[in-house]
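Write out the 3D structure for:
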Amino acid sequence: MPKAAMVLAAGLGTRMRPITHHTPKPLVPVAGCALIDHALDALHGFGIDRVVVNVHHMADRMTDHLAKRPGPAVAISDETEMLLDSGGGIVKALPLLGDGPFLILNADTFWLEAPGGGLGNLERLSAAWDRKPSDIAVMTTRPDQIVGYDGRGDFLFGDDGRLRRFDGVSPDPVIYPGVAIIDPAIFEAAPPGAFSLNLCFDRAIARGRFHGVAAGGLWLTVGTPEAIGAAEAAIESFRHAAPSPDRA
């Protein structure tokens, strides 16, 4: 089981404008809760006490919010001088994350667990990591279980849960919703400065050490002002349809 996690929260949120002219995207409220708090609550519920968040846009607002949260303290990786993209941001934060595998979550993605018990998504991902030799293991969703995603798909499942890039034509592509476990050794040959985590994805794919884990529940990615209402409507519908404990 990973002992640490990083939430990627340093982006400018350009697609969320004009809201992000006055509010950093991770603090935009969705369903009564700041976006980043959905991710942090999931991590703390899973038992992760060492959490790192990178900040850039309106960094003071972010650090103030994170300092006031109940529960374990959140460490800050400061990118106010230079945005480092997803991969470079993780590299900068490595000294705060420790030597073991760690979780990464996008600040603008969260999920509601499927009703009926069973393993939650972070438990499922952690269990899969323990079973398969991986550099990176990612959660995957079907198109019909994620709201706010407007792409065609990201990956295809191959043998033994390994993933390869979606070729644009094959059936049944899956989506990477922004939750993964990473072995920090994958960053040993990382380039300096800003770079995308996709570089590490491709290196792990080439090594046959990039695995996917099918997610359960409803997933929300909130990247635009219009996506806020769509996410809240989907959440309400999902909760209304889910059986209550006394009816399960």
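The CA atoms of residues 141 and 215 lie 6 Å apart.
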